[in-house]
């Protein structure tokens, strides 16, 4: 399978840790610490995995494992809080900018999905590290 790339992929664990760090701290992509590798690599991999459904498959896998252990509470709570908007908030453009139109809302969906993945993903990484032993670090 050719992916039009030269060279090797950066370590997935390092990139995932960078994505988790970025989502949990809210830092800008360009401000990611060097230990996660080049910020462009982390950002592009996040966009690629969002577009090709990797995050969705990962979420389904983690949910299946967690549900099998009985650790998921599938009850849904709905908050009916109302927040008033400023009077100048009315009349904003109704259409999305062209960059967002082409992605069909993927950045927002991927952010919501990634945020919901943080705890189970961190647990999966901890388990993988425990299985790999101290040499894998």
TrEMBL record:
InterPro entries: IS402-like_dom, Transposase_6_like
Domain Insertion element IS402-like: 6-58
Residues forming coiled coils: none
Region annotated Disordered, chain positions: 85-109
The organism's place on the tree of life at top rank: Bacteria
PANTHER family reported in the protein's UniProt record: BLL5188 PROTEIN, TIS1421-TRANSPOSASE PROTEIN A
Protein name per its UniProtKB record: IS5 family transposase
Naturally occurring in which organism (per UniProt): Streptomyces himastatinicus ATCC 53653
Organism ancestry: Bacteria, Bacillati, Actinomycetota, Actinomycetes, Kitasatosporales
